[in-house]
Amino acid sequence: MLRSVNRQRDTWIAAILGVVIIVLAAYLFFDHSSRSTASIDSPAATTHPNSLARLRIDDPMALGPVDAPVVLVIYSDYRCPFCAKFSRDTEPRLIERYVDTGKLRIEWRDLPIFGGQSVQAAKAGRAAAEQGRFWEFNRAVYRHAPDRGHAELTDEILLERAREAGVPDLARFQAAVASDRLLPAVQQDIQEAVAIGAASTPVFVINDKPVVGAQPLDVFVSVIEQAQR
């Protein structure tokens, strides 16, 4: 049994490393000469400002109205310390200032690039979303994340975060995380990230403006304000 589990783990790690290689290749393909240190090239820059937004009314992994003038799409990994920094320091202020006033919609995308635990965490987030507790789970994971290095997210820890987030049916949550049922949705997000050349986390696309990394609040405010004009 242990040998089988280890084989499955190694298979996942190899698969994720393969995705990372593809992402890096896509990233290197882009011309960086016209790029600022806080942005990347993206199809969104030459198409409709909300071309990456899914705008699903019943999307449990989104915050804000579907008719918000600005949509922020975030590509993130639960084990990424910079993603945790954004979640703790910047996201709450953006929600208060823009989401709660109907000016901004935030849509989550999974980009698990730090191994098998990242994939399990992505599945766990979606399992929590199925029970209406996605953002509570999301914040619980990031609240406990270290300032440096990658968070340890075993299945036991993910279960504890789900309990902390108030996921009502923990047995159902565990079954969803243990199965492969939620993987296609995670893979769809990965493919979308590869398509825009996202090579790290977090990456944001705010209407037609890509932003890379846990930038200071004023960077996000500037881009959002400009997008509203």
From TrEMBL:
The record's section on InterPro entries has: Thioredoxin-like_fold, Thioredoxin-like_sf, Thioredoxin_domain
Pfam families on file: Thioredoxin_4
Keywords, ordered alphabetically: Disulfide bond, Membrane, Oxidoreductase, Redox-active center, Signal, Transmembrane, Transmembrane helix
Task: Give start and end of each Thioredoxin domain.
Answer: 36-229
Respond yes or no to whether keyword Transmembrane is given for this record.
yes
Question: Which SUPFAM superfamilies does the entry link to?
Answer: Thioredoxin-like
MF terms from GO for this chain are: oxidoreductase activity
The portions of this protein that span the membrane are 12-30
The record, for PANTHER family, names:
DISULFIDE BOND FORMATION PROTEIN D, GLUTATHIONE S-TRANSFERASE KAPPA
Family that this chain belongs to: Belongs to the thioredoxin family. DsbA subfamily.
What is this protein identified as?
Disulfide bond formation protein
Q: Which organism is it from?
A: Mycobacteroides saopaulense
What lineage, starting at the top, does this entry show?
Answer: Bacteria, Bacillati, Actinomycetota, Actinomycetes, Mycobacteriales
